[in-house]
Amino acid sequence: MIQEKLIKDYVEKPMKQYWNYEAYTDLGQKTYKYSDVAERVLKIHELLKYLDIKKGDKISLLGKNSASWAMTYLGVISYGAVVVPILPDFHSNEIHHIVNHSDSKVLFVSEKLWESIDPEAIDVLAVYNMCRLLDYEYKYEKEKPDIEKLFVEKYPNLQAQDINFDDISNEEIVVINYTSGSTGFSKGVMMQANGLAANIRFAWNNMRLDPGDRLVSILPLAHSFGCSFDFLWPFTKGVHVHFLSKMPTPNVLLKAYQDVKPNLILSVPLIIEKVYKKKILPQITQEPVKTMLKLPLTKQLILNKVKKSLTEAFGGNFREIVLGGAPLSKEVADFFRMMKFNLTIGYGMTECGPLISYSNWEKTLPNSCGKVVDTLEIKIDSKNPFKEVGEIMVRGENVMKGYYKNEEATKQAIDSEGWLHTGDLGLLDENNNVFIKGRSKSMILGPSGENIYPEEIESIINNKDFVGESLVISDDKNRLIALIHPDFEQMDALGKTLDEVREIILSLKTEINSELPAYKQISKIELFPNEFEKTPKKNIKRFLYQH
Question: Please, which of 136, 280, 397, 429 could form a disulfide with 375 given CB 3.0 to 4.6 Å?
Fold first, then answer.
């Protein structure tokens, strides 16, 4: 059991220790110090007391990444209530369902998302604007409290030593995180304080951030990856987190990195793949660079130049880029490794809060997503886990308690011996390095019984000209079909018509199949007009597109 307490050691202590440090900035807007965070957290405590919220009551939180979101989250868990983060991309019906299913007593919502709520569809005591804490919006049965007055009476001259939260056990449930997976319906993952503490402790021991460092938060805070590593862990280290409010397109991100010059970058593979395709490929596929990359004497010179340019584009100050949430294209991974770029990819899932494996960029092995973390055991459900692909199973401190009010799903996920069945397929080596092969539910059985992992084929397709994204599925005759959404940005930039791009994409089949064994070759390409619907981790929701 992790000895450090989530609330006392990882929320209260940093507020005292880094009182005058800058904590949060909404990019282009206001900055909050750790002392400001402490003040907002204590005001939330006063509000929850006034509403007669008890320890263990559920509080929903709906909003995009912001300082207000972060401070509200800290206020709820340090009070002893259970926070229910809701992804802002959810449809209004799903939002209403989560608020009600979780038995939430209060909903904090950002002003921009207020219109997505139907007050009559949710059963709560009150709805609050998380940005303007003193405003209530709906279903308020008591007289409106004067939170400022209550706060000043209790803390006339707030000092660091006044921060003294209740000692909440690490065995208590602190978060119910509703997933949005690639295979369908959301479930409420119950995470104990110890699970979050385990993730933070691992980061303390294996990843570097120093007091006063800077970080750009782009991952959804309502998702466990963003919450634990873009927000909670940096807070414990005295780091200044800058929240990006705009859509994280490559251009917007690179501008933010130039402005902030972060010391660590956390992202998802899709963004890095777009940077590679838009910024790097056009350079290395043109002559004379293409020829120079084939010559030993000039290859390293070219790679060093690309690496320097890319490092500067990401702010020039980062120690490492850590990717998670989805597999990284093999072509992209191989090129970054050839450059000796400071990039690595980890593996996790919401049910582990989220981390399962990670190694830093200097130690990670090719095609691996790192070594299993020291708070977990791991095994592969196959006769030979070093050679035969099987389901990845983990057991340990940061595994969820279960799914909220869903005992059947909990039993399906966690067996009688405590092993969590991840649904991911992979291999191990003798040092517990993890090699992901795909999702068990997306795996396709080939005509002669071969296991086909569509992600491997898609990684080849996605790096072709005029391909925005792709999805490989099988039809009723067990043939592989590639659905391709065109890259309209490249089409416009090069002045191509849609008919021209259609012909180019349809003609890619021979080129793609030349890079694949016979049993993995696609039989047909179909153009798909719209972007594929995705989860917050940018995984395509495959179940929506099966024939």
Answer: 397
- The C-alpha atoms of residue 398 and residue 418 are separated, in whole angstroms, by 12
Average pLDDT over residues 221-227: 92
Q: Do residues 408 and 395 make contact, with C-beta atoms less than 8 angstroms apart?
A: no
pLDDT in tens, 506-542: 999 999 998 887 778 899 999 988 888 877 666 787 7
Report the DSSP beta bridge partners of residue 60: 84, 107
Residue with tokens 């092995």: 365
Average pLDDT over residues 178-196: 79
- CATH entry, 6-15+30-168, from 3.40.50.980, 3.30.470.20, 3.65.10.10, 3.40.50.10680: 3.40.50.980
- H-only helix segments in 471-540: 488-493, 498-506, 508-513
β-pairing, 31-33 with 22-26? antiparallel
Q: For residue range 290-318, list pLDDT tens digits in order.
A: 889 888 889 999 999 999 999 999 999 99
DSSP state of 239: -
State the DSSP string of 50-116.
HTTPPTT-EEEEE-SS-HHHHHHHHHHHHHTPEEEEE-TTS-HHHHHHHHHHTTEEEEEE-GGGGGG
- The pair of structure tokens assigned to 111 is 């002003």
Please state, in angstroms and as integers, the Cα–Cα distance from residue 122 to each residue in 61, 127, 179, 445, following that order: 13, 10, 20, 44
pLDDT on residue 441: 67
DSSP string, 270-294: HHHHHHIIIIIHHHHTSTTHHHHTT
Q: Tell me which residue of 491, 447, 439 sits closest to 467, measured CA to CA.
A: 491
Provide DSSP, 360-402: -TTTPPTT---EEPTTEEEEEESS-TTTS-EEEEEEETTS-SE
- Pairing label, strands 524-527, 188-192: unpaired
Structure tokens that stand for 244 in this block: 């990006």
Phi and psi, residue 298, nearest 5°: -110, -15
Yes or no: say if 4 and 197 are a contact pair by the CB < 8 Å rule.
yes
Output the CA–CA distances (angstroms, integers) from residue 276 to 249, 269, 335, 483, in the order listed.
Answer: 13, 10, 9, 22
Q: Show the tokens assigned to 384.
A: 């030979």
13 within 8 A of 204, measured Cβ to Cβ: no
Q: Which fold has domain 444-544?
A: GMP Synthetase; Chain A, domain 3 (3.30.300)
Separation between Cα atoms, residue 250 and residue 311, nearest integer Å: 14
* All CATH 3.30.300.30 domain ranges in the chain, comma separated: 444-544
DSSP single-letter state for residue 544:
G
Distance CA 317, CA 208 (A): 13
Tracing tokens 């004497």 back to the chain, one arrives at: 297
| CA dist 198 → 10, 231, 259 (Å) | 11, 15, 32
Q: What gap in Å lies between CA 1 and CA 19, rounded to an integer?
A: 29
